[in-house]
Amino acid sequence: MKVSKKYAQSTQAITQKSYDVASGFDTLLSLPKAKFDETVELHVRLGVDGRNADQQVRGVCILPNGTGKTLKVLVIAKGDKADEAVKAGADYVGAEDIITKIQSGWLDFDVAITTPDMMGLVGRVARVLGPKGLMPNPKSGTVTMDVTKAINDAKAGKVEYRLDKTNNVHVIIGKVSFGKDKLLENFNTVIEALSKAKPAAAKGQYFKNVTIASTMSPGIKINVVM
To answer: For the whole prediction, is pTM greater than 0.85?
Structure first.
């Protein structure tokens, strides 16, 4: 596979098989930059078997420095809760009209929040929202009567983590422009959340592989000892 000149240069600049956390971010931020503000992602392979219900890992945490992305928040609610959502700064608020738009292919939002009484209605588009990671869920705090808190959390930088089919977790932790200190703070917040979410049934090494990467860079392996 042919790679770009910058990617090849970045690969050559990564001189160690793995780094401590601080050195890893130093290395990442020293790599050749793209012409845009690259997103920084954390990828973690966990020592669990997600096929077992007692080894699932899923939750949310609020990054102290946000993700660097302004999220568009949709709230599906009626009456007082719809009014509350508007006051709290939701980008889109509706009920049946929103469901109809989604059924027509509209997905111009990053987070969907709803009240418990609306889940029957939201269920009509579960097959659309689910694969996109947009389906409201009580575990992620997006099915709630406290829509103001849910909106504020989303706008403040709440991220959801969950296992994929290969027992990996992928989380955005900021932008290259954040600099080392803010990225480190966000990184540590996610690692701490994952550590607390360790299933009791998980045995052996929990953090199997921890990697950071920007949009255009190779992955940099980080040593995480727990």
So the answer is: no
